[in-house]
Amino acid sequence: MYADYAYLIVALPVLAFVLCLFVGWHLPRGGGFITVLATLGGLIISLGILKETYPNQIVHQSMHWFADFNVGILIDPLALVMLLMVTFVVTLIHTYANGYMNGDPGAARYFAEAGLFTAAMLGLVYSDNLLQLFIFWELVGLCSYLLIGFWYRKPSAASAAKKAFLTTRVGDVLFLAGIILLYNNLAALNIPLKPGEYLLQFPVIYANIAQIPPAQLTLIALGILGGAIGKSGQFPLHVWLPDAMEGPTTVSAMIHAATMVTAGVYLVARMFPLFYAAPHGLTAVAAVGAFTALFAATMGLTAFDIKRVLAFSTVSQLGFMMAGLGVGAAVGAAAVGVSIFHLIGHSFFKALLFLCAGSVIHAVNTNDMREMGAVGKYMKWTMYTMLVGSLSLAGFPLFTGFFTKDEIIAKAYEYGVMINFLPYIFLVAAAVLTAIYTFRMWFCVFTGKERSNYGHHESPWVMVGPLVILAVFAFGFGMAAQHDFYSYLDTNFEHYSVNFDELGVIGGHAAEGHEAAGEGEGAGEPWYIKLLPYIISIGGILLAGLFYWDKIKRFDPSQVTGENDPLRRTLLKGYYQHEIFTAWFAETVVYGTSLICNMIDIKLVDGWLNWLSAWILGLAENVRKIQTGVIQNYVSAMLLGIVVLVVVITLAMEVGLV
Amino acid sequence: MIQNAISLMIAIPLIGAVISLFAGSKAKFVALIASFIPLVLSLQMYMEFDKSSKIMQFVESYNWVPSIGVKYTVGVDGIGFPLLLLSTIVSILVIIYSWGEGKKPNQYFALLLLNEVGVLGVFTALDFFLFYIFWEVVLIPMYFLIGAWGGPRKDYAAIKFFIYTHVASLVMLLAIFALYFTYSMPDGTRTFDMLTLLQATADKAIFPTGLLNIIFAGLLFGFLVKMPAFPFHTWLPDAHVEAPTAGSVVLAALLLKMGGYGIFRVIMPILPNVDKAWITVIAIIAVLSIVYGAFLALAQKDIKKLVAYSSVSHMGFVTLGAVAFTWMSIQGAMFQQFSHGIITCVLFMSAGTIQHVVGTRIIADLGGLADRMPKFAVIMMAGFMASLGLPGMSGFVAEFLVLTGSFATLPMYTMIVVFLSVATTAAYHLWAMQKVMFGPILKKYMNVHDPHSYELFSMGMIILLSLLFGIAPGLITDIMGTAAHQVMEPVVTLSQMGVI
User: Fold this and answer.
1) Among the three residues A512, A534, A557, which one is the final residue of a domain in this structure?
2) Structural domain range at position A370
3) Which residues in chain A are closer than 8 Å to B296, comparing Cβ atoms?
């Protein structure tokens, strides 16, 4: 019954977008309640569908669109958990935004764009074909652009918005190339399609992967991975994400932490059978993910802007998720469940952390942690909810992050035993740094002495309420959902004709490896590997405390690195990405090329023409009186020309030339 | 079913043009009515149009100059009809946009109507002689629009436009004559009938490959200049920069489409019978137009010139999709014609509005306008997004079809386009948008405000159309799907269709 209304999950927020855009200006708080209700409606429908389909049914609806393409809805376990997470988290964030955006003259525009974003994200999640997914994917990018640039009068915001759009666009180029390649490969197979089946539908793709040449599969997989790298802020296309913090904090929470950036991970999970079958496909995913996880964490250590710390942390955690998928080369389809579990858990605690940061910024009026300190005295609710989020992010035992992140590390260990230990090493190092930078932030903000004058007040209930709800999930979700979640997601590809054994042979994954991994669920891990997660999180927090918590402070950060330490400078500069990507690549290479093209156009392509006309004019110096500039003369000349031509051609034909 | 719908459509704006010449300041009302009736007629035709039929519809044929085989034959199929619809839509919106024109409004609106006559004629004529006449008719109003209402360098631009496109037309005419004089009907007479001549080109006994290559080159040159394609595009930026807004809109939205129409109607039926090397030549031209055009746009300092170069880039997709010669790519190329026709209107209108509200179009001198012109900012943003190929709007559908379809036959060229143009296109649009609209409002622009409601209305309608055809492309791709099959099959003459 609920499944019949699945289209409303997207339609309601679209309606909210239209209403807020046109009448929001006349409603209290920009009509924010409309967007909240629309998203809540989506949550209710999603829950209804969960009730109807759990544990072993899927919903699939489709209709013809144009040419050889369709539009459709596909709700399988993978899509459904995403739908539930997005509607739930975004409902809370929209509620919070009702308080946060109160008084902003652009509130109606904010809620309109936020509604459109919600629709796009949800549409992306339950698309039944790759083209439709791509369309919503781009719309998500558009909303991100609009919302990052929400305060468009600020030049930095306008720049950050453009940077986000263009950087992700580079990834989208690869994604588009992947889709084109995939479509043409499928078309070349001449698959007999039943009525209602279309080439780019996921079930059709899954069923025919084995027929595509392996070399082509790798190219397709790399293309799609490119898209995911752009959207999910993976190295080297992560550069837009920290800058995206120019938007309102609710945007950061909604788009750049909990939902949109997870789209890339979701895409790889959705196309997992293809990556599994593509030789080196998952290796690339694991490499990108593990490297990004560590790389971003190092930058998180040195940032002073509280939102940037969280942004780097997001990049790093997305790296964990990617690596979680990548280790599927060793553990098979179970990787999807592991990675998505972290994705869902992360969305709770990262949304929470951002909203807490927003609450702090709302009161303190700065993003700079050096100007905060002792905020906890005045904002108890914010402090404790943020503590829950931080513990979860740091992977403190029993908190959500502990279960979700450490499962990825455990799977990476299996991958290490079978294939290569590098991802495991990178992820462990990243996990240590995660605990450190997270508590560096928490201690700097909430403990110590006030380092500037700021407002002393807690945020209103409409903002604190969502924090508390999110805190509950950031604490308990991992523990409560662990087993059901894995068993539910592991059935995802059983709904389609995917033969992982066959695909594994194409992709070059040893079949025995899986069985070994399947039997000894963790049995092969020595005791010190099992103990490591506890050491990492608690040790990391303690270490951060020794530097930044006044009660137990033993060291000063300046003892470790001096002002002129090249490593510190490199980290503060974010590995000179701005210099490389913006100053060198965009402004020198691309813009330089365009200037050269312009020169060629003026001097050469147009130049020869002007030269030709000057030459003709010179030739016609004696008859220049013809150049009267009166149009009638040109028209008569034209007619005369036609007559001459006719005569010439006729003569030519008479003589037999033509 | 309306009798003589096409002739009526051509006649009404022509009569309207004459009346508005004498209507003084009331000319705009005459123009509105004279462009509204063709719009209604074309919508009525859309209802009656058989989307799955490859046969010419709404055909009218009368002898005109029987001694030399000239007939007045008009009719539409899936190739021409979408462009006819585009012409009636764009024409009325341009007239509404120009509602406030104060300089010699009677002549101004008369020229816009005359222009509509010309383009409607080009898209419906089925006799080469008639086709050529309409083709040339279009030049005249555009020349005067640029020459009389244009900017500071209008004389240079007008002459350049006229001579450049006119030389191209003459070359094309030469090729048409070659067709005319080479082929004789079974009864020994000659004919200008388009489909008959095109069908005959498939006969090697009449048109040996060597001769056909030359004819093909002439026709192709004529159409490529009009589109315009690299390296024949340099007349376009000059014409646009100096033309008044309405002139630019009509030029980009309709006149360029004549070139694309010629490709589908005339070039594609001959393509299978000429040297295969032509495919490479045309593909290279297409790729260069797309990529080079996009890079040129990025270098521009005048926002109108930027938009002009974006047209070069976007029209390259039409050439690419056509020459790739797959069902999907041809369909996409046709849709690109239609879609670019819509979207480019809002871009040129935006440039025009900025010019007359703010007084300059130089990007570096602008900034923060969104603050003072919020409604306009939303519309311009939507237009720019449509132009950069945002999904959900018509441009994306067209480009996706072209690229996906072209890959099957021209994989290398397609990938070059994907990698070098998609991100560049986004870059120049967003860069211009940021410089013009965002950032703090400059002091000198504190007093600017949203433009007149009729300007916003025209632009808003175009955004809605782009959304409509982006969300429900089937409305028009169903027609184009049939037309794409038609393009790929041998030509069938009107008498074989049984319509005359």
Assistant:
1) A557
2) 283-487+526-557
3) 594, 597-598, 601
